[in-house]
Design goal:
Blueprint lengths: L15 E3 H6 L2 H15 L4 E5 L5 H15 L3 H4 L10 E3 L20 E6 L7 H7 L12 H26 L5 H4 L7 E8 L2 H4 L9 E4 L5 E5 L7 E5 L3 E4 L7 E5 L1 H6 L9 E3 L11 E8 L6 E2 L2 E2 H11 L14
Parallel strand pairs: 1-2
Antiparallel strand pairs: 2-10, 3-4, 4-5, 5-12, 6-11, 7-10, 7-12, 8-9, 8-11, 13-14
Helix pairs in contact: 2-6, 3-6
Amino acid sequence: MSSAPRTPTSAPRIPTVDLGPWLSGDPEARVRTARTVDEALRTAGFLLVTGHGVDPALRAAIRASARGFFRLPVETKQPYAVKVGGRGWLGPGAEANSYAEGTAAPADLKESLSFAADEPTGNAAVDAEWFAPNTWPDETPELRALVQTYLREMRSLSDRLLELLGAALGEGEDFFTRHTGHPTWGFNINWYPGRETVGEPEPGQFRIGPHTDFGTVTVLDRQAGRGGLQVFTDEGGWEDAPFDPEAFTVNIGDLMARWTDGRWQSGRHRVLPPPAEEPAEELMSLVYFYECDPGTDVRGIDSHVYLRGQLDAITVESGDATDVTGG
């Protein structure tokens, strides 16, 4: 992950964007913000975003409740087990994100509580695939209200970000949001336990393997750690992502990159394994994946045919990957 040092005057590859000036309506501030976003998305595909207005206490409460679930015995969590793309618990060994790049690797060293869009459209076939009801663990009854509040805020923030991206692309602010009237989205609470839970990482094994996201924008609330997020650029290789506890980490996915005809790069990233020097390190991330309306044509492909294929690609079938339950 080492790279040549940048001079103090060089622009950061992953800048911090304050949404306040953009939302203020000041024309000059909006132009500056849009220019910064365009430049960043041409290289790393990542931003840090402040001025979003989401209460940090809400994020902390979700983590505290979810931690209570993740620390339950496996036999208690098992009834909630689902595959990638489902609504419930993704247990150890369920997912290998590097598969999306065609790379064979051990399964990711994480567990997730996974939620997704659940407001039906009235189209039975579409609803059955993309808008099924969510599953809420009985053991943590407070989690439902917390997550539902957070999801409303993420939906609103994601649309504001897409309006900014429309302007940064030189198009109208509704260039993307005209396709988010009834969008799909996913939300994962990712738990990255320490080595006492997952055991010694195998060669090539990560908390999340190298990949790009699949949708339009991803809004990530993360924690700093030695075994944390790294971002890849052609210029710098793998580098630790900058961290600001007040900021969301925002990146664009494959659909957005395609939508811009490759002007912007979907942000390639990974999450390092639990570090040997801090084997008990435990992190938790809240990850909101925003997409678009089912059937949206994105430069000649059906957005949701693509999304389904990618979700299936990272699913670990029984026997496909090394057991990561520890030991």
